[in-house]
UniProtKB/TrEMBL annotation:
Protein's UniProt name: Putative beta-barrel assembly-enhancing protease
Function comment: Functions as both a chaperone and a metalloprotease. Maintains the integrity of the outer membrane by promoting either the assembly or the elimination of outer membrane proteins, depending on their folding state.
Transmembrane segments: none
InterPro entries: Mito/Outer_Membr_Metalloprot, Peptidase_M48, Protease_BepA, TPR-like_helical_dom_sf
Taxonomic path: Bacteria, Pseudomonadati, Pseudomonadota, Gammaproteobacteria, Immundisolibacterales
Catalytic class of the enzyme: hydrolase
Length: 487
């Protein structure tokens, strides 16, 4: 029963002993326990620790697809001003979670288990509702007064149950707040019902089929009849599915319109891409396509052929992969996954000039597409044009949440250009994004000692060092010196 809290957040680990740290109490139910500003700051730290401890799938095409799906739902959630971010965790289990600050994670296993884009959107809509209804802050406010260390210990324990799937999280929560957690159970049942209701409304408003949530829940409930305890998928342990819940979802959906926007086929293709990228190696990925027949339905068959081409590419079978991609692109010349795959194939074949030409042509159809921009930046770097890489990606380094690949490419480009100070700065930001603040600060200190260095550049570095020191102190104070590394 305690695992019903897990659906609220996958958060940072703190040893239970940390609950003894003497931090001030931070309010009561009337005053509001967790302000939006504090939640946002916790959310930034949350994502750094997620990247430090969990295997995030940083493929820009998959990440862009999931983010696009989520943002479309977010715009129709009734809280369009709130910022959301979405990311994929490489994990075969069927799960999704909402963390602080609007950060929503999806396990790769969920993408491979859902049968339609509407089903995947229904799960995202449910998690978005947890965020918009502020279920995590409300859960803490429900406890009247709770010290910050106790909250941190409770959140830290939850990750053990959410990701590890065992009893460790339950034991840790019990050790910290056994009585308080027991009192939360009815409250979290209400949260799940509210997330279902609002999630279905969001799903319909965004143009998806509102019946998808009931369909997915129904299939999960049927599967749960043959499983028990730890054999249940993580989604069923953190989002308990009952016949009543299925019936309520179906009843709500009947009052909503069906899908109003055409399915682009991206869902099936991204599923095959996830399958290949999360396989243990090229041989396993290729074995799947050798042992499983191509589907009969046309769109599913094209997605299967796309996955096979990616698997062949990863296995180094360049000519065979090229033949399949040429055939696919003949059928759908402007379909983004095929265009990206052809650029990737050229890079895999060590033909960066060809990759650059392909990417530039494709960007005329998809201007600003992140996957194509990153591939073009890599191609330009390999052809000895680091200034072009910097021109392509430089602005992204100053955005709120730059992709780690972008920062890594900019650091390499600075090295090629002989700009050691900028190379250190970009590596520092790369470490920040991956939750390694101390390594980032070391990179900046090394940059500050290089000569010659302009006064303005030194001032920028010193200001960033102060900011990261403040972030590090917040992280240590709130979450303890070390964050959990999940193996």
């Amino acid at each position: 029963m305690l695992r019903r809290l897990v659906c609220l957040v996958l958060c940072l680990c703190l040893p239970v002993a940390q609950a003894e740290i003497a931090l001030p109490e931070i309010g009561d139910a009337a005053g509001g326990l967790l302000s939006e500003q504090l939640e946002q700051r916790i959310g930034v730290t949350f994502m750094r620790q997620v990247r430090q401890g969990l295997p995030v799938l940083d493929d820009p095409l998959v990440a862009g697809y999931v983010a696009g799906l989520g943002q479309r739902l977010g715009r129709n959630s009734g809280d369009g001003q709130r910022g959301f971010s979405f990311f994929v965790v490489v994990d075969p289990t069927l799960n999704a979670f909402a963390g602080p600050g609007g950060h929503i994670g999806v396990h790769s296993g969920l993408i491979l288990t859902t049968q339609t884009e509407d089903e995947l959107a229904s799960v995202l809509g449910h998690e978005i509702a947890h965020v918009t209804q502020r279920h995590l802050p409300r859960a803490f406010e429900h406890q009247q007064r709770m010290t910050m260390p106790t909250i941190a210990a409770m959140l830290g324990a939850i990750i053990l149950g959410a990701y590890g799937g065992g009893d460790a999280g339950v034991a840790a929560i019990t050790a910290v707040q056994a009585g308080a957690v027991q009192n939360q159970i009815d409250f979290t049942r209400q949260n799940e019902s509210e997330a279902d209701r609002i999630g279905i409304q969001t799903l319909a408003a965004a143009g998806f089929d509102a019946r998808a949530m009931a369909d997915f829940f129904g299939r999960m409930h049927q599967a749960s009849r043959f499983s028990a305890g730890e054999q249940l998928p993580a989604f069923l342990r953190t989002h308990p599915v009952t016949l009543d819940r299925v019936a309520e979802s179906r009843d709500r959906a009947q009052r909503m319109p069906g899908r109003r926007l055409p399915d682009s086929g991206m869902f099936l293709h991204m599923g095959e891409r996830v399958r290949v990228l999360t396989a243990s190696g090229p041989a396993e990925a290729l074995r799947y396509y050798e042992q499983n027949a191509m589907p009969g339905e046309a769109q599913a068959a094209r997605a299967w052929r796309y996955g096979e081409a990616l698997a062949l590419m990863r296995a180094g079978r360049i000519p065979a992969a090229g033949e399949r991609l040429i055939a696919l692109r003949t059928e759908a010349p402007e379909f983004l996954p095929y265009q990206v795959a052809q650029v990737e194939l050229a890079l895999t074949a060590n033909q960066p000039a060809a990759a650059s030409a392909l990417a530039r042509a494709d960007l005329k159809l998809y201007p600003g597409n992140q996957a194509l921009m990153i591939l073009l930046a890599e191609a330009e770097l390999r052809t000895g044009h680091p200034a072009a890489t910097r021109a392509l990606l430089g602005d992204q380094a100053h955005q709120a949440d730059p992709a780690p690949q972008v920062l890594e490419l900019l650091a390499r480009a600075a090295d090629q250009r002989g700009d050691k100070i900028e190379a250190f700065q970009m590596r520092a930001e790369y470490h920040v994004q991956n939750g390694r603040l101390e390594l980032a600060m070391e990179q900046l200190r090394r940059a500050s000692k290089l000569q010659p260095i302009a006064f303005a550049q030194l001032a920028t570095i010193e200001a960033r060092l102060r900011q990261l020191q403040d972030d590090l102190e917040f992280e240590r104070q709130f979450f303890g010196r070390r964050a959990l590394t999940v193996n």
